[in-house]
Amino acid sequence: MATDGRTHFWKRSAKTPGSIQPVYGAQHPPLNYRIHKTGPKTNASSARSKKASSFHEFARSTSDAWDIGDDEDEDLVGMLAAPSNLKPGTLMVASSQYAQHRNKLNDKPEHMQPVEDSQFNGRVVKSSSEVQICRPSEDSLMRNPLHKQQSLPLRPIIPLVARISDQNASGVPPMTVREKMRLEKFRQLLASPNTELEELRKHSWSGIPKEVRPITWRLLSGYLPANMERREIVLKRKRDEYFGFIEQYYKSRSEEQHQDTYRQIHIDIPRTNPLIPLFQQPLVQEIFERILFIWAIRHPASGYVQGINDLVTPFFVVFLSEFVEEDVENFDFTQLPEIVQRNIEADSFWCMSKLLDGIQDNYTFAQPGIQTKVKALEELVSRIDEQVHNHFLKYEVEYLQFAFRWMNNLLMRELPLRCTIRLWDTYKAEAEGFSHFHLYVCAAFLVKWRKEILEAEDFQALLMLLQNLPTIHWGNEEVGLLLAEAYRLKYVFADAPNHYRR
């Protein structure tokens, strides 16, 4: 943290209190990536002589999003390129493997039924979880004309949900007996007149099967009632309430007092998962703009802060996967019936709101929740791995310089979206997953890269490593190991404050 007249780096060029410029990570590669170890090494004495300005000099010398001003969003379309930090052929191989496993798809699962006796390009389906929730009403509100957002050019595809080694994605080898038993257990819990939420959390900790993830997330978010008889009524009321907010507030986006908020949202939306075509579709961007603007209007204590836009995407993808059999990242959202589009939008809004209710101090003025969590991470790492901690001290790397966005974006910039979805299965199963358990996940995530950290021998190499960790090929197995280590750390340190003391 900056003290004694030193500038808080995350407020630099920020026009909204507590907001930051977006920082590109694992799924958002830097615009002009520079290889770590080019140029001479910086010795410790020269680094100390530049302590007050070293981070700002580093930020100015790289093409990170700290340097992207609000007025430069028009340039982003032309500047954004495929990530050059990947090894040659990596994207091509990944896309090829993904195409191969899609060609081997078996017949549709028995629980999938067509929407209104029709399919859209053979990809849109009706999921059993939606049938369990409610029957959609035929009444729908007319959408107001919305400003169309220019979409970015098509980019090489990195699968966001499915990967050949992922267990719960479509197109993978047939489920094992154990996986079938887990899925059946989930279905039994969800079909009971009153779902036992504690039992559901216990089974969700090690991952939720894709087939039942949408309804399970709604339940564990506190959005859907455990009583099955009440679900249809509650969902209809909450969805109607959301679109009532749209009618009441969304037209005010052109008013002077909301101009800054709407403008920042409008700038950030194209930066959300820029490598995934789904999120560059005008209709999807309009949905995100509405969700974020309504949330900001209803939460004036924090308003919109950059980074909140990322938190919508896992909910949107999970609820969309309820109706799309495969290839979610390339799906044309306009093919869905309007009632389905509306339900996905409303459910994403309410579940994101429930999540933010538990971590809102991360986004109020000066973001005190994040500052507290970064300080706790520093203390925890100093006890877990003193060598890594001392390495940061030697080269004067402050935890706030890399861990701020780990807390602000819940590691979404560091992991592929498919991994975030799996991670959130466990966060939802934990009592304070997004606020408390996330700290131990960040500590385990940092220490995992200790070898690479200790090999980096200057300030710039460390920052470039920590902002571009090589997780692009991670899947369920890697996330499972990370969560297991985080649980171990929590077990050892959470209820033992003396472990923090030297």
UniProtKB/TrEMBL annotation:
Annotated region (Disordered), positions in chain: 1-25
Top-level taxon: Eukaryota
Entry keywords, A to Z: GTPase activation, Phosphoprotein
Keyword Cytoplasm listed: no
Pfam families: RabGAP-TBC
Boundaries of every Rab-GAP TBC domain copy: 207-431
Keyword Phosphoprotein among record annotations: yes
Molecular function GO terms recorded: 14-3-3 protein binding; GTPase activator activity
General function of this protein: May act as a GTPase-activating protein for Rab family protein(s).
Protein name, per record: TBC1 domain family member 22B
GN (gene name): TBC1D22B
